[in-house]
Design a protein that fits this description.
eight-stranded parallel beta barrel, two-stranded antiparallel ribbon, binds ligand PBG
């Protein structure tokens, strides 16, 4: 295919730098934009009142008690962030092998969601993870029996967990567990419960990644986890398999799909977006955030620059939005530019 270079004879008629001389022209020819509507803010909720507990491996991120989560939700709304995702830090004493706290209608997540919805109604979307790891004494996303992560038994509980969260007011159910068949089962459970409009954002291509380490500190599951998650999360070596995962979840009823982690997997984002033309999200996970923050704290990188560059990279790769711990900070920069 002829390029503009060859058709017009190339240099010196063509000077690529001409379109970069000033900020206005750089903006005019920008192929990708990053808006506050592209940001989803993950939040960690903890028991108590007026508690803001720093997470050592995620500088700048805190676990918040429900009252402060509501304030964070207000901040998100005011910044133009469309949705937040709520993750619980569960007291280790209430974790059990059957993860029964996942089904407690008064668990931390449900309490937080009710409080957010009471204050904000439909002014912000609330996303809840569906998986058992915050509640499971084994630290796994599913029920463990003799060292095996049980699929079908886990899916039954995930359906109940979804209903409990929908009843609390959750707008988007986000299964992050990677069990087979859970999207269809959850869709049927939600529809059966009268929650036809509750959406499913499937963690469709979720890899068994070392980049989740700081998150597991944040929710307190790292101490609990026995072994690894390689029998259900994907092998980082695979990309065709990601397309099969996504195709399956779409067929089962996913409204949106997600790739996770983010930056090391932008090739996967691009393939999925091109092939399925579905709303496609990517998660800039805790370890990615931690890497950037660690370098910034050492004075090795400029925080705002690499934050915005990393988020733009997601958009350029085809993501419709990004789950990122940088969401409020990026939104402030976007709103002030
Ligand atoms: C739980 C879950 C994880 C993350 C989101 N949901 C961790 C895991 O699968 O071990 C990771 C998010 C992050 O690292 O920021 N299933």
């Amino acid at each position: 295919m002829p390029t503009s270079n060859t058709t017009s004879g190339g240099f010196p008629h063509v000077r690529m730098r001409r379109n970069r001389t000033d900020r206005w022209v750089r903006r005019m020819v920008s192929e990708t934009t990053l808006n506050t509507a592209d940001l989803i803010w993950p939040l960690f909720v903890i028991e108590g009142q007026n508690i803001r507990e720093p997470i050592a491996s995620m500088p700048g991120v805190n676990r918040l008690s429900v009252d402060l989560i509501v304030e964070a939700a207000l901040e998100a709304r005011d910044l133009g962030i469309p949705a937040i995702a709520v993750f619980p830090n569960t007291d280790p004493d209430i974790k059990t092998p059957c993860a029964k706290e996942a089904l407690n209608t008064n668990n931390l997540v449900c309490t937080a969601v009710r409080a957010i919805k009471k204050k904000l109604g439909n002014e912000i979307g609330v996303i809840c993870d569906v998986a058992l790891d915050p509640y499971n004494s084994d630290g796994h996303d599913g029920i463990v029996k003799d060292g095996e992560i049980l699929n079908d038994e886990t899916v039954k509980i995930l359906c109940q967990q979804s209903i409990v969260q929908a009843q609390a007011g959750c707008d988007i159910i986000a299964p992050s567990d990677m069990m087979d068949g859970r999207i269809r089962a959850i869709r049927e459970a939600l529809d059966g419960g009268g929650f036809e409009n509750v959406k499913i954002l499937s963690y469709a291509a979720k890899y068994a990644s070392g980049f989740y380490g700081p998150f597991r500190d944040a929710v307190g599951s790292s101490g609990a986890l026995k072994g690894d998650k390689k029998t259900y999360q994907m092998n980082p070596a695979n990309t065709d398999e990601a397309l099969r995962e996504v195709a399956g979840d779409i067929a089962e009823g996913a409204d949106m799909v997600m790739v996770k982690p983010g930056m090391p997997y932008l090739d996967i984002v691009r393939r999925i977006k091109d092939k399925f033309v579905m709303p496609t999200f990517a998660y800039q996970v805790s370890g990615e955030y931690a890497m950037i923050q660690a370098a910034v704290q050492n004075g090795w990188l400029d925080g705002d620059t690499v934050m915005m560059e990393s988020l733009m990279a997601f958009k350029r790769a085809g993501a419709d939005g990004i789950l990122t711990y940088f969401a409020p900070r990026a939104a402030k920069l976007i709103n002030n530019r």
